[in-house]
């Protein structure tokens, strides 16, 4: 009697293990895993090219990494920085916006979008980006500082600029926030 009880329990556990194994195998996608790995490798290859000053080759492999893995943030950030350094601000903005679509909860990437929009004269987009930074990261000073600077530089909402600047100083009493 005791033996049958344990045999039944064993069969139940074995059946459960088989079902769980089938679920894992059905969810496992080797192509997706390979794409992620390939994109990481391409991003690293691009870093080597960039380190040796071969920026066109770096850009080529980073773009390929973007194609291989549509959610790879690292290659997009590197492309954005490269484009920014080369004065291709619209293109840099495009890559930062892609990163924001991939990681919408990040205030830092939105801050970059806002900064580029401000430099490109897209004041409304910059303002919206900075406000979103403040919404996402209310305990960090960067969004408050950036929006205050935008208002000061454009002569808009000067009363709000003062409030924002005070909040930036309150959150981070560093020299830049006093400017």
Short structural summary:
It is built from 10 helices and no strands. The protein has 179 residues and is mainly α.
Helix percentage range: over 70%
* Poorly predicted sequence stretches spanning 5 or more consecutive residues: none
| Average of pLDDT | 89
Tell me the series of helices and strands, N- to C-terminal. HHHHHHHHHH
Write the layout of secondary structure elements.
Layout: H1 2-27, H2 30-51, H3 55-68, H4 73-85, H5 89-102, H6 107-119, H7 123-136, H8 142-154, H9 158-171, H10 175-178
Helix pairs in contact: 2-3, 3-4, 4-5, 5-6, 6-7, 6-8, 7-8, 8-9
What would you note in describing this structure?
α3 runs antiparallel to α4, α6 packs antiparallel against α7 and α7 runs antiparallel to α8. It contains ten helices and no strands. It is an all-alpha fold and 179 residues long. Helix content is 82%, strand content 0%.
Record keyword descriptors for this entry.
flat
């Amino acid at each position: 009697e005791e033996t049958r009880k344990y045999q039944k329990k064993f069969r139940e556990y074995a059946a459960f293990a088989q079902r769980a194994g089938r679920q894992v195998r059905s969810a496992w996608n080797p192509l997706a895993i390979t794409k992620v790995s390939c994109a990481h490798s391409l991003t690293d290859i691009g870093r080597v090219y960039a380190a040796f000053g071969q920026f066109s080759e770096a850009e080529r492999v980073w773009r390929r990494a973007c194609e291989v893995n549509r959610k790879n943030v690292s290659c997009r950030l590197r492309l954005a920085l490269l484009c920014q350094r080369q004065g291709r601000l619209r293109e840099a903005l495009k890559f930062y916006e892609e990163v924001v679509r991939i990681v919408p909860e990040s205030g830092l990437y939105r801050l970059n979008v806002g900064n580029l929009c401000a430099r490109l004269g897209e004041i409304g987009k910059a303002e919206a980006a900075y406000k979103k930074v403040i919404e996402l990261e209310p305990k960090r000073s960067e969004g408050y500082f950036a929006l205050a600077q935008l208002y000061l530089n454009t002569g808009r909402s000067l009363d709000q600029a003062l409030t924002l600047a005070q909040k930036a100083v309150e959150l981070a009493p560093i020299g830049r926030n006093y400017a």
